[in-house]
Amino acid sequence: MMDCEIAEDGEVYIEDADIIAETTLDDEDLPDCSDEDDEYDEQADFDEDLGDSIYKFTGHTSGVFALACSPTNPLLVATGGGDDRGFLWKIGQGDWGAELGGHKDTVTSIAFSSDGQFVASGGFDSVVNVWDASGNFKCKLEVPVPDEKMKKKAPPTGGFEWVSWHPTDHVVLAGSNDFSFFGKTNDFSAGMWGLNTGAFTELSGHRGSITCGDFTPDGKTICTGSSDLTLRIWSSETGDPIYVVGGNICKFFRLIFHFFPCAATGGEDEKLVIWDLERSSPRSICNLESEVTCLTWIGTSKYVAAGCADGDIVIWDGLSGDNVKTFRGHSECIESLSVSCNQDFLVSGSASASGDATDSHGTARVFEIAGFR
Question: What transmembrane ranges does the database entry give (predicted)?
Answer without folding.
Answer: none
